[in-house]
Write a structure and sequence with these properties.
The complex is a heterodimer of chains A (about 120) and B (about 425). With about 120 residues, chain A is of the alpha+beta class. Chain A folds into 2 domains: about 45 residues, no CATH class; about 60 residues, CPE0013-like (CPE0013-like fold, Roll), CATH 3.10.530. In chain A, about 15% of the residues lie in helices and about 35% in strands. In chain A, strands 8-5-6-10-9 form a 5-stranded mixed β-sheet. Chain A has a 3-stranded antiparallel β-sheet with strand order 1-2-3, with helices on one face. In chain A, β1 and β2 form a beta hairpin. Chain B is α/β, with parallel strands linked by helices. Helices cover about 20% and strands about 35% of the residues of chain B. In chain B, a hairpin with a 4-residue loop joins β6 and β7. In chain B, α1 packs parallel to α2, α1 packs across α7 and α4 runs parallel beside α5. Classes of the chains: A alpha+beta (about 120), B alpha/beta (about 425). At the A-B interface, β5, β6 and α2 of A face α2, α3 and α5 of B.
């Protein structure tokens, strides 16, 4: 059955208004101004996903929290499961930007990585 | 008194990008003054992603975006001082800064770049009735407390104002296990980007109530609840529309104000609408050799545009330091027509201008299927169709020098038309 969705693209701050028509796995996207938008529209109706950003506790860090993100997007329905793991995670300073903080979080195949460097206190 | 070719006030995204571009333009004697404990400014607490798509063609978080510029500053060995607060700037470009190690120090600068950023509109400026219990934070303060200091700010949260930081914090607090009841916005449209409404509110089923404001804050020690009311076209609360919500925290995301106390001490003329300095196409303020860029000049939605603007300020300051003298100035005024709130720059110095000038502006209302027009005196020269124009999204238009022709216009007017 053919379905039509009106979406706002979240790939960049322009926020294009997308029209996505889906018939099973057959998806057509219009209203996008770039390829990322087409890909987003397709994914959003088939398998919506998001990048999760948060912080973890640092031991001996110059600041208390280390900012982290999932290296790529993860399935949207896994957001809270991933957050539960992130919330329980502690790291020892020093940490370098890009370091892997949690490997393959919740079996998504995606690592959680540090987004800033934190020196030892 | 020590002398530096260029002193940059502020080590956030604007100050960093300005320093990098001034260095690349051949100025080595630079000093960046930063009041926080690390470079990067507000980006350090903006741990969400969405930064850098224009600048780096990839999606970065705030700290990652800052890191790209901090690395360049360190690679170029550009000197900076942390925990150092600029306390005064004179029209002669003498800067007084204070820190715990050196005390009060005066330096003389060949050129100054103002890059102090902005601050949030606080509760006191909003006129919210009620007591002053704990639990009322500006969204940015809550963001810093959570993302850097590691405090949980509240469990049941109401957010007033739909600025981007408020929307980002709605998601952030939800992810950390708080309940975000609702975001209320005084205006009939959101102040934040559409993408943030989608990914921060809709994703988590957080309602957005437009044309609503907080009319009472309950609680004496800690916030226990708030009352909101719908507002009429004049933004006055409508009697009988009151709704009460239980909550322990109220976040305020009600606008950002360029921080220009230092600019004032230097005698820089400010624009009443932007709250920032009046600048020409070189981003030079009314005080010679003093330039401005980033959120101190006008509040931006995108850091990418801050960087681009700051790079321009860095190049212009560098050429000012190197050449010293410019041709006599001859100004064209950029004026705002119907539907436009402000432009930056506010004037173009045609005798010294580059081949083209990027003019940024904001519209005063939400417009659908209208055009942006640019008129030289009475003659319309550019007309560009727009599907949507909104106050929350900054617009830009490029004006080319060769389009002025022989008869130089006196004013360039930008307006929204049918």
């Amino acid at each position: 059955m053919m379905k039509e969705y009106e979406l706002t693209c979240i790939q960049c701050p322009i926020g294009c208004a997308l029209t996505v028509t889906a018939d099973g796995d057959n998806v057509a996207v219009s209203g996008n101004t770039c390829l990322r938008g087409a890909e987003y529209g397709r994914k959003e109706v088939l398998h919506p996903s998001r990048t999760v950003t948060s912080t973890v506790l640092t031991e001996n860090g110059e600041i208390k929290r280390l900012s982290v993100k999932t290296k790529t997007d993860i399935p949207k329905e896994k957001i809270f499961e991933v957050m539960d793991v992130i919330r329980k995670t502690k790291v020892k300073a020093p940490v370098r930007i890009g370091d892997v903080v949690i490997e393959n979080v919740c079996g998504t195949g995606v690592d959680v990585i540090a987004t800033k460097s934190v020196e030892k206190r | 008194m020590t002398y530096h070719d260029l002193v940059i006030i502020g080590g956030g995204p604007a100050g960093l990008a300005a320093a990098v571009s001034a260095h690349e333009a051949g100025i080595e004697d630079i000093l960046i003054l930063e009041r926080d404990e690390r470079l990067g400014g507000i980006l350090n607490q903006c741990i969400h992603n969405g930064f850098g798509l224009h600048t780096f063609k990839e999606e970065l978080t705030g700290p990652e975006y800052a890191d790209r510029y901090i690395k360049k500053v360190t690679d170029y060995k550009i000197p900076y001082k942390l925990k150092s607060i600029a306390a005064d700037i004179s029209a002669e470009r003498e800067i007084l800064y204070v820190n715990g190690e050196e005390g009060a120090v005066s330096v003389k600068a060949g050129a100054v770049i103002l890059a102090m950023g902005c601050r949030e509109r606080p509760r006191g400026a909003l006129g919210l009735p009620g007591y002053r219990p704990a639990g009322i934070f500006t969204a940015g303060t809550a963001q810093r407390l959570m993302n850097i200091e590691g405090y949980s700010v509240g469990k049941k949260v109401f957010i007033l104002g739909s600025g981007d930081i408020g929307l980002i914090m709605a998601r952030r607090m939800t992810l950390e296990g708080a309940i975000v009841i609702c975001v209320a916005e005084l205006m009939p449209y959101s102040g934040g980007l559409n993408r943030n409404i989608v990914q921060c509110l809709n994703d988590f089923n957080i309602p957005l109530k437009l044309s609503h404001t907080v009319t009472k804050i309950h609680g004496k020690q800690r916030v226990t609840g708030i009352t909101i009311s719908e507002v009429d076209a004049n933004r006055r609360p409508i009697k009988g529309t009151e709704e009460y919500y239980d909550c322990d925290t109220l976040l305020l995301s009600c606008g950002l104000l360029p921080e220009n106390e230092l600019s004032k001490s230097a005698g820089v003329t400010l624009d009443r609408v932007t709250g920032g300095p009046v600048v020409d196409d070189k981003l030079q303020t009314s005080v010679e050799g003093v330039f401005a860029c980033g959120n101190v000049l006008h509040v931006h939605d995108l850091v990418d545009y801050v960087s681009e603007e700051a790079e321009r300020a860095g190049r212009q300051a560098a050429s000012f330091v190197k050449s010293g003298k410019e041709n006599d100035k001859k100004y064209i005024t950029l004026s705002v027509g119907s539907g436009v709130r402000y432009t930056v720059p506010q004037m173009i110095d045609v005798n010294n201008m580059n081949d083209s000038v990027t003019v940024r502006f904001r519209v005063s209302d939400v417009f659908r299927d209208k055009s942006v027009s640019v008129c030289y005196d009475d003659k319309c020269v550019i007309k560009r169709k727009k599907r949507i124009l909104a106050p929350g999204e900054m617009e830009q238009i490029v004006i080319k020098k060769d389009t002025f022709g022989d008869s130089m216009p006196k004013t360039v007017k930008i307006s929204v038309e049918d």
